[in-house]
TrEMBL record:
Homodimer. Keywords: Apoplast, Secreted. The lineage of its organism: Eukaryota, Viridiplantae, Streptophyta, Embryophyta, Tracheophyta. It comes from the Eukaryota. PANTHER family: NUCLEOPORIN-RELATED (PTHR21495). This is Dirigent protein. Its main location: secreted.
């Protein structure tokens, strides 16, 4: 399960604009490939109370991973598109990561 800060930049001082909430599960026997189900739940500005929903495969050691946007709510109602995930930093001790998501979304 995940409930992580969604910020406008990778730095600890970046403004939090929402939460990345959902889950992931290992879904591959040959590589580290995750099944991800995630909502970007926005809490700031004009997107407050709106969400973007992502469901797809994340091969975490690939430089760029692409996953589909399957829906949304609020200002992102009927959202469709995709996002690209890039690992910004990874801490091998804690297995924690900062991931950059670039979202391309068409919505109502």
């Amino acid at each position: 399960m995940i409930d992580d800060p969604l910020t406008d930049g990778p730095e600890m001082s970046s403004k939090m604009v929402g939460r990345a909430q959902g889950f992931y599960a290992l879904a591959s026997q040959e590589e580290i490939g995750l099944l991800m189900s995630m909502n970007f739940a926005f809490r700031e500005g004009k997107y407050n109370s709106s969400t973007i929903t992502v469901l797809g495969r994340n091969t975490v050691f690939s430089k760029v991973r692409e996953m589909p946007v399957i829906g949304g709510s609020g200002l992102f109602r009927f959202a469709r598109g995709y996002l690209q995930a890039r690992t910004h930093t990874f801490d091998q001790k804690t297995e924690g990561a900062i991931v950059e998501y670039t979202c391309f979304v068409l919505h109502y």
